[in-house]
Specification:
Elements: E1 8-11, E2 16-23, E3 26-29, E4 39-40, E5 42-45, E6 51-53, H1 55-60, E7 68-70, E8 83-84, E9 91-92, H2 94-113, E10 121-124, H3 130-142, E11 150-152, H4 153-162, E12 170-177, E13 182-190, E14 193-202, H5 207-226, H6 240-256, E15 262-270, E16 276-284, H7 285-309, E17 319-323, H8 330-337, E18 347-348, H9 356-365, E19 384-389, E20 393-394, E21 400-406, E22 414-419, E23 428-429, E24 433-434, E25 440-444, E26 452-460, E27 466-467, E28 469-470, E29 473-478, E30 481-482, E31 490-494, E32 500-504, E33 512-519, E34 533-540, E35 549-556, E36 570-577, E37 583-589, E38 594-597, E39 600-601, H10 610-634, H11 637-648, H12 651-661, H13 666-713, H14 719-735, H15 738-759, H16 761-772, H17 780-796, H18 799-811
């Protein structure tokens, strides 16, 4: 059949994937060869080099982990750690593995429907960084999907739940707890359209962490007690096969205890001597619920943060939409419904949480027109074609469309749209619409809710006779649609001082564009060196660059330039991010008068070295211990609250296990690095809380001091910046934002320095401070001569000479002198 919209949507999941097709207003799952709704995201290469995807691959993973790969979604966008299949030596990057899953889903469609699809919407976690989105795009291309718009998973879930909703003016919360990722999104539904108001997520929080907790907390200790397994642990490569068997058994048992008080695990393992032993264990639901607790706490905290940033409370949210397999667990639902320890929001689980994302993706695919992907061929002589401008899905029952008829003379011609099934009546007709001299027209249609409205297009010549036209139909469906998707994380570049130059801020509607001028930090000779630009690109919200996730780098390599480029040369960078969060960057170098495409390398670094990771975690645990001691001394309630959050989320214990596992599992290594980044940010937060009273006092003392400087030394033009700076300080205090307040205090100090510089007083202050640094100066004889000249300039009030003396004295110091204190007494008379 000829489709006018994409109609197929794919949930590319950590543990399972699925594909759905939009049929009218219903999204139907396309089942696989096993008649299952989902296909395990598992890939195997056997000893004969045959590639196997899905359930068979997952089952073989129990006995042949060296030739099987699972849970590779978390590695999307990273480099340097391909999966090497032991029997054949074949290696595959994460996007290549994902491509095989996508190819398998395409084949399922072909077998079930006979249709070879080349376009589909693919979902990604909202928390996915830009490098992972780019890797998903590459995977789609490798799988034969030449057009694959990306859709955020919470948006897909909202569409699955609300496509035909009658709710208006409501807020929803999407709670998406998947196999390997978690997303919380606040959705605003208004007049048939919805918008993502705010989002919080974690790419390394999902059901597989519960599986590992069962393995490490329950099964491994039980095996070690009963049998001879020396140093049995996840991080010991000797026991990789045994650990993998326990992991798969834990996953299956976890699902079973959702509907039973206990279940039996039976696994055959090989002990120290190579003897096969049968390990049997009764897994209790109560134990699984206990192990789930820290992960639920973390997810609830992310939901609360999203609500807080949206300035909403639980009472403002109509319902929480449950998505992901773990939300089938009765305990999780009870915890979420609890107003004290959970969210206290009514839960909506009317949709299948396992397939909701795939079905929502299909609904979104129904809004994506095929004729915008590939241009239609021009009509042959004597045949007419119609170009249509309209939204295939929208909230209006009276949609407005425009169009143009081509292929021949259109004077006196008409078009008419006919809905043959309108409200059970014989037909609804738009009436004949005259075409303009250039074949253009506009029309308003009437559509019915609850079904796809297919309008026949009738083209009439000047005599009224109907002539064939292509296409001959138009389909429109009344349904809830998404407005512009927002940028989930701020995007910036890391600077040498560990600060961030933000390019696009969180919440910016997509598509978005930003232009910025940078300067090279080193000189580059043509064809030599490592790169003219090699600046880290980060995603996150923290003002410290290293507290955000590095997702790639900006670079223009020396081989690309025609001649040498000196240090300090301008680079004009343009960054574009589309609705799928795919990035394009162009760098223009004025000196060369040349533009470079693809100036951004969106690939994260490889998994961190396990030894370095262990050292970093040990250092951060030590810093946390010091902060705890300070917090107990000050008894600051806000600091204690953050520390309690760290403990309740089991952050440190999780890190210890992940660091050990990182020696054999690249996924654990990357997860550990991200959890370490979270711990650092949380410890920063505690430190900020402990410093807050002193910081507020400093700000409140600074404001009147700067006000005095402006009054005594400033001009009328300084009054407005002063008032703005004072207001900014008060806003930072009210927001209880330590980082922001530090920034506002620094800006206030800069204002004072600017006023004193313009009045000439700053030169005298700088000279007084430089006099105290004379012992550090390299040439004492020259320093003494300069100081003598400076003293005479002070006596004669010669500001120009004094500035020259200060510059020369500064050159004699081993490092640049600190800026003068603008609040010292000005030691001269006016």
């Amino acid at each position: 059949m000829t489709r006018t919209t994409i109609d197929f949507g794919i949930d590319l999941g950590t543990t399972n994937s699925a594909i759905a097709r939009l049929n009218g207003v219903e999204a139907e799952i396309v089942k696989n060869d096993l008649s299952s709704d989902t296909t395990p995201s598992a890939v195997m290469v056997d000893r004969r080099g045959r590639l196997i995807v899905g359930q068979a691959a997952k089952q073989r993973g129990e006995s042949d982990s060296g030739n099987t790969c699972l849970e590779f979604k978390g590695l999307m966008g990273t480099t340097g750690k391909p999966k090497v299949f032991e029997a054949t030596g074949r290696s595959m990057e994460p996007e290549e593995l994902s491509a095989e899953v996508l190819r398998s889903l395409r084949q399922d469609v072909a077998k079930r429907t006979g249709e070879e699809i080349t376009a589909a919407v693919i979902t990604v976690p909202a928390a996915f960084d830009l490098s992972a989105c780019d890797a998903t795009r590459r995977a789609a291309g490798l799988a034969g999907l030449t057009h694959a718009p990306l859709l955020q998973e919470p948006t897909a879930a909202a569409l699955a739940y609300g496509f035909q909703t009658d709710d208006e003016n409501a807020f929803w919360l999407v709670y998406d707890f998947g196999g390997g990722t978690f997303d919380a999104a606040v959705i605003s539904v208004r007049d048939g359209e919805f918008t993502v108001v705010d989002h919080r997520g974690d790419n390394f929080l999902g059901g597989k962490l519960i599986d590992w907790a069962i393995v490490e907390e329950l099964l491994v200790p039980a095996v070690a007690r009963e049998f001879q397994f020396t140093d049995l642990r996840r991080g010991n490569p000797k026991w990789s096969a045994a650990i993998n068997k326990l992991k798969l058994a834990a996953e299956a048992a976890k699902i079973q205890v959702s509907s039973a008080e206990s279940t039996s695990i039976l696994v055959e393992l090989q002990d120290d001597s190579g003897q096969l032993v049968e390990f049997e264990y009764d897994l209790l639901r109560a134990d699984v619920e206990r192990l789930m607790e820290p992960f639920i706490v973390r997810s609830v905290n992310l939901c609360r943060k999203a609500l807080e940033e949206s300035r909403l409370g639980p009472g403002d949210i109509q319902k929480a939409l449950l998505v992901g397999g773990p939300t089938l667990t009765p305990y999780l639902r009870r915890r979420l419904a609890d107003p004290r320890e959970g969210l206290g929001i009514p839960l909506d689980h009317s949709q299948d949480p396992i397939t909701a994302v795939a079905r929502g993706a299909a609904i979104f695919a129904g809004t994506q027109r095929v004729d915008t992907i590939t241009a239609a061929p021009p009509p042959t002589a004597g045949e007419y074609a119609i170009e249509l401008e309209y939204r295939p899905v929208g909230p209006d029952i009276e949609p407005f469309i425009g169009g143009k008829v081509t292929g021949g003379a259109t004077d006196g011609c008409t078009v008419e749209f006919v809905n043959p099934e309108y409200k059970g009546k014989p037909a609804w007709r738009s009436g004949r619409i005259p075409l303009g001299p250039d074949g253009t027209f506009t029309a308003t249609l009437w559509a019915e809710k609850g079904r796809a409205n297919t309008f026949q297009i009738e083209f009439g010549d000047p005599t009224g006779a109907l002539k064939p036209i292509t296409p001959g139909t138009l389909t429109y469906t009344v349904g809830v649609v998404e407005t512009q998707p927002p940028l989930i994380h701020s995007v910036g570049i890391g600077l040498a001082d560990n600060e961030v130059e933000w390019l696009l801020k969180k919440g910016t509607p997509l598509p978005a564009r930003r232009r910025i001028v940078l300067r090279t930090t080193i000189g580059v000779s043509r064809g030599e060196g490592e790169g003219m630009i090699r600046i880290p690109v980060v995603e996150g919200e923290h003002h410290r660059a290293d507290r955000n996730r590095q997702i790639g780098r900006l670079e223009v390599i020396p081989e690309q330039i025609r001649r040498d480029v000196p240090e300090g040369s301008e680079v004009d960078l343009t960054l574009l991010i589309d609705e799928s969060r795919l990035v394009t960057a162009r760098a223009y170098i004025p000196l060369l008068d040349e533009e470079f495409e693809h100036a951004i390398n969106l690939q994260s670094e490889t998994a961190p070295d396990p030894d370095r990771l262990a050292r970093d975690v040990a250092a951060e645990k030590q810093r946390l211990a010091q902060v705890r001691r300070r917090a107990s001394e000050f008894a600051d309630p806000r600091a204690e609250q953050v520390l309690a959050r760290i403990d309740n989320e089991n952050t440190v214990a999780d890190l210890d296990k992940l660091v050990d596992a990182a020696r054999v599992d690249p996924g654990a290594s990357i997860t550990a690095e991200n959890r370490l980044r979270d711990l650092r940010a949380a410890t920063d937060e505690v430190e900020d809380e402990l410093e807050w009273p002193a910081l507020v006092q400093e700000a409140r003392e600074l404001v009147p001091a700067v006000r005095d400087i402006v009054r005594d030394r400033g001009k009328a033009s300084h009054q407005a910046p002063l008032e703005a700076a004072e207001e900014a300080v008060q806003e930072a205090i009210a927001a209880h934002d330590a980082d922001l307040l530090r920034q506002r205090v620094a800006e206030l100090r800069q204002l004072a320095l600017r006023v004193l510089d313009e009045s000439g007083d700053l030169a005298f202050l700088a000279f007084e401070e430089l006099r105290t640094l004379q012992p550090e100066m390299r040439d004492q004889r020259e320093a003494e001569q300069l100081l003598a000249t400076g003293r005479r300039a002070v006596e004669t009030n010669d500001v120009g000479t004094l500035r020259q003396v200060n510059a020369a004295l500064g050159e004699l110091l081993p490092s640049p002198p600190p800026p003068p204190d603008p609040f010292s007494t000005v030691r001269r008379s006016r």
